[in-house]
């Protein structure tokens, strides 16, 4: 299939296997959920009655005091005691096969093309860090600085120039993830990044 550049002056040939795949909502949901789960730190921790310090001695004898029996001052019902169902660090990551992940990324990219939210632009080179320069470079190609710009490698000048544009991010194609693609208002991808992206998913 052919994808027109945003400027409209030429088109590029791309693989149907990457950009012509039907949308698989179940698969996309799975890889997005797995990515978000893998982003969780999972470091929440509390101490149970075995982990808090102290409490080795029985506070008072079992019988004869009139008080409720107690075996430790670190019981969860005591002030300073352990937590009853204490949280512990855990790994939230979910396993997704490489083949499934790539198929899901292809399904997302294909749906973006169908929704006209995916545009190909020529590689951008700036002489200096300049937000106006980046906006103009995109405008010259009939593209708007919004959503995500995917490049083969984040250039220092382009990266810094995009920092001042609200709702616009520059991402290297090697760092592209399903959450970024799904949530982007539009995806602008340079020709060199497109080759790398297609080579990765084909």
TrEMBL record:
User: Which keywords does this chain's UniProt record carry?
Assistant: Ribonucleoprotein, Ribosomal protein, RNA-binding, rRNA-binding
Subunit architecture: Part of the 50S ribosomal subunit.
- Belongs to which family? Belongs to the universal ribosomal protein uL4 family.
What GO molecular function annotation could you give as one example from this UniProt entry? structural constituent of ribosome
SUPFAM superfamilies assigned to the protein according to its UniProt record, in alphabetical order: Ribosomal protein L4 (SSF52166)
The record ties this protein, via InterPro entries, to:
Ribosomal_uL4, Ribosomal_uL4-like, Ribosomal_uL4_dom_sf
Protein name, UniProt field:
Large ribosomal subunit protein uL4
Known role: One of the primary rRNA binding proteins, this protein initially binds near the 5'-end of the 23S rRNA. It is important during the early stages of 50S assembly. It makes multiple contacts with different domains of the 23S rRNA in the assembled 50S subunit and ribosome. Forms part of the polypeptide exit tunnel.
Residues of the region (Disordered) are 43-69
Q: Can you list the GO cellular component terms from the UniProt entry?
A: ribonucleoprotein complex; ribosome
In its keyword annotation, does this UniProt entry include Ribosomal protein?
yes
Q: Does the keyword rRNA-binding apply?
A: yes
- GO biological process terms on file: translation
């Amino acid at each position: 299939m052919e994808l027109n550049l945003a400027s409209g002056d030429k088109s590029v040939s791309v693989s149907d296997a990457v950009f012509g795949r039907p949308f698989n909502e179940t698969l996309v949901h799975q890889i997005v959920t797995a990515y978000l789960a893998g982003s969780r730190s999972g470091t929440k921790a509390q101490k149970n009655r075995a982990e808090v310090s102290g409490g080795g001695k029985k506070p008072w004898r079992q019988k004869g005091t009139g008080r409720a029996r107690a075996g430790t001052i670190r019981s969860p019902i005591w002030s300073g005691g352990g937590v009853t169902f204490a949280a512990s660090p855990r790994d939230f990551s979910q396993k997704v096969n490489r083949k499934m992940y790539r198929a899901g990324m292809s399904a997302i990219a294909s749906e973006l093309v169908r929704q006209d939210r995916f545009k190909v632009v020529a590689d951008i080179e700036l002489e200096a860090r300049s937000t106006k320069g980046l906006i103009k470079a995109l405008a010259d190609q009939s593209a708007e600085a919004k959503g995500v710009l995917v490049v083969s490698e984040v250039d220092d000048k382009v990266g810094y120039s995009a920092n001042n544009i609200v709702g616009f991010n520059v991402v290297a194609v090697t760092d592209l993830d399903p959450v970024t693609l799904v949530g982007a208002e539009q995806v602008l991808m340079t020709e060199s990044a497109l080759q790398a992206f297609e080579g990765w998913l084909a």
